[in-house]
Amino acid sequence: MINWSSLTPAGQTEALARPVMKNSDSLRVTVADILATIRQQGDAAVLEYTRKFDCASLNSLPLSVAKRDELATRVSADVKDALLVAFNNVKQFHEAQKPQDITLTTTPGVVCEQRFTALDAVGLYIPGGSAPLPSTVMMLGVPALVAGCERKVLCTPPNQAGEIAPEIALAASLCGIEEIYLCGGAQAIAAMAFGTESIAKVDKIFGPGNSFVTEAKQQVSQRADGAAIDMPAGPSEVLVLADGNANAAFVASDLLSQAEHGPDSQAILVSDSEALIEATKAQVELQLAKLSRNSIASRAMENARYILTGNISEAVLVSNAYAPEHLIVQTDNARELLTDIKYAGSIFVGQWSPESAGDYASGTNHVLPTYGYARNYSSLGLLDFMRRFTVQELSADGMRNLGPAIMKLASAEGLDAHEQAVALRMAELEKGNEQ
Amino acid sequence: MINWSSLTPAGQTEALARPVMKNSDSLRVTVADILATIRQQGDAAVLEYTRKFDCASLNSLPLSVAKRDELATRVSADVKDALLVAFNNVKQFHEAQKPQDITLTTTPGVVCEQRFTALDAVGLYIPGGSAPLPSTVMMLGVPALVAGCERKVLCTPPNQAGEIAPEIALAASLCGIEEIYLCGGAQAIAAMAFGTESIAKVDKIFGPGNSFVTEAKQQVSQRADGAAIDMPAGPSEVLVLADGNANAAFVASDLLSQAEHGPDSQAILVSDSEALIEATKAQVELQLAKLSRNSIASRAMENARYILTGNISEAVLVSNAYAPEHLIVQTDNARELLTDIKYAGSIFVGQWSPESAGDYASGTNHVLPTYGYARNYSSLGLLDFMRRFTVQELSADGMRNLGPAIMKLASAEGLDAHEQAVALRMAELEKGNEQ
Questions:
Q1: Less crowded by CB within 10 Å, the N or C end of chain A?
Q2: Tell me: the pLDDT tens digits for B298-357?
Q3: Nearest CA in chain B to A335
Q4: A228 beta partners
Q5: Name one GO molecular function term (chains A, B) (predicted).
Q6: How many helices (H) and strands (E) does chain B have?
Q7: Residue range A196-206: average pLDDT?
């Protein structure tokens, strides 16, 4: 247990330090090689990597809509029902995010507009691994659907049978994703960013992945011939802010929910109650023993931090200093604390709001800025699947009204041609040529 | 003159190709060295670079508010009036962009919110050079002001006298920018991203600059201890789409407005009228001769392209393929073409809407995605100075309603602790412990 007020400022910084992400030079070079290979050799190279790492017999990348739908029928009725509940909530919440175009007359005759439009082609990456992640398909696929993106491209590594999990297929179907390609890793990111014979280039790539995927996303986002990406990546994390009245079993279960994601997950409890911290620690031990992903969660919990503060206000300051991806507030009057909370990817208010709710089904997106990026990046939302652009139109009167100011400013910046573009028009207007 | 329909697809791609941006390895290493030096040595190193490149006698970085205000009084009354006109239009248009927070009950007892909040600290970079750029101060400073960013930090290289242009000082004053530091180049970007003794770290850096600044922004945006940036950079560009009724003198002046920005500026005319193209070329020669920045504009115009299409619909396709930063439409019924135009940073509709209007005073932002990034990045706007985050709160009823679906999905993904976090709560509720 860390007693916050006993720490020096440097000690406080250290208590909240995240593990250093080391993108080794060798990872960087390996991924750069994969990117270059995919750019040069296209599908053949993607297939070769896929045969090597995922499915030895794969000979083509696309998974047909017919196959998607056939796989989707294999999902059990209760899982299907649960997916539908989640899908509807996520869809509702992202529909509510639809932005309004703006039209404003700033000066008589000068109309300015801001318009929103869906990105044309988005690439959604879904990692493989031991268990399927239909929730991530929804978190990426629903906003793409609601935005109205013309092309929704999903890449995910095939299993040994050259297929994908039925739950992934069903979630893709719900989101109207018709382009599914059986590939993963840096090769999938490269294929979506640069395009291959079978996968047309996309404009922006979304989704989580391992260190190869993360590095590949970063590299393609730095290239003019690549693609934009959703946000920078980092290990997942939760900070639970709890007072003495919190339920220690709930708090422990929330810390462990984070811990089971991976051995590098960060779980932090900040409380003004020593008794609550001790009770939570005991609950962690109890609950940890029963988890199927016990070894992963145990490793993550070795780095868990329990921070004792003098009062709840101080606990809020600790949370602000950390800027957690997930912030769970289990205190009396939890909602009242929101005004003082500055940075978090998503905030879970009160004891009935576990992280699991947002991870799966409440409606909010589970793709969130982590690793302190909650200070300067947004939670994933509908706007990330759209572009904003402006339109302006000056009438002859608008030019008359605004022309003199434009000319004066262009002149002050020494830009003659800018001034001239207005002067020529003003001269025409003086001649009465309004058309 | 390029006859579009006579080109092969490859020829068409080549006709719209942008110059390759070569970020040389030496630039990369030089900038990385500057970044490392600023991180280690802080103010002393920033001052040393500044003395070397900008002002030999500078001994401290901040420019006081008193000095800012004193400099601002030196602006002539007519330039001040023009700046105020522009400021008010830009302010109005960015105020109109204020987003609405969302609160939605997705399932009875499950409330999801999306909230917007200003970024805390933004860094605004204003290049030095031959002429001051008060318009850029406004384009960055006004949205920061309207968003309500707590800290607005402006870095700009000092002149020989260790001061800044009065127009910059006035624009900064209008935008309520109180933190001004006399430094430029990669060292200024590093100082804002990492922080020094006198410049506290910022969350996001905005603004244009030379190749050192651009490379520095790119590098700090890739570091977890750095800062976010506004958008990727590239040479500025305009595409004018005009029919036979367009005024060739206006068209030429718009091409030249772009050309005078720099020798790497791109200017493209697409028209279905050979006569208009020829008349524009003649006008370009005439007007070019009179420009003070003739040598810069001439070099840019050497790479100008004049593309003849079979009709206006084809011209729109050419524009969509190019995805220009600035698109000027000077055709009959220009507004009707908007429905077919897919990508552009900002669109200028009709003959009274020159690029100069948006560059200075109409109200739209002049920081726009260039180099084809109009496909997947947005024009700068108020939202770039804000963050979105989500909040969710489940009541006991919300947990009852949604809990079973969450547990089912967590189980399908093999995440026991996620399931357990809900199971524990459901068990409490079954015991009647709602609190």
A1: C
A2: 999 999 999 999 999 999 999 999 999 999 999 999 999 999 999 999 999 999 999 999
A3: B393
A4: A204
A5: histidinol dehydrogenase activity
A6: 16, 15
A7: 98
- Type of residue numbered A331: T
Is the Cβ–Cβ distance between A157 and A184 less than 8 Å?
Answer: yes
Q: Which residues of A touch B126 (CB under 8 A)?
A: none
From the number of C-beta atoms within 10 Å of its C-beta (0-12, 13-18, 19+), residue B31 rates as buried
Residues in Cβ contact with B92 at an 8 Å cutoff, skipping those fewer than 6 apart: A104, A106, B363
The topology (CATH level 3) of B234-377 is: Rossmann fold (3.40.50)
Kindly state which CATH superfamily the domain A25-98+119-229 is placed in.
Answer: Nitrogenase molybdenum iron protein domain (3.40.50.1980)
User: Nearest CA to B307 among B8, B12, B9?
Assistant: B12
Distance in angstroms (rounded) separating the CA atoms of residues A48 and B251: 52
> Domain segments of chain B: what residues?
25-103+119-229, 234-377, 395-430
How close, in Å, is residue A254 to chain B by CA atoms?
A: 6
Tokens representing A420 are 């001239």
Which of B86, B390, B409 has the CB atom closest to A135's CB atom? B409
Token couple for B284: 């370009």
Contacts of B74 (CB under 8 A, 6+ apart): B166
Taking each continuous run of H as one helix and of E as one strand, the counts in chain A are 16, 15
Alpha-carbon span A387 to B345, nearest angstrom: 10
State the DSSP string of A294-343. HHHHHHHHHT-EEEE-SSHHHHHHHHHHH--SEEEEESTTGGGGGGG---
Q: Taking 90 as the threshold, does the pLDDT of residue B64 lie above it?
A: yes
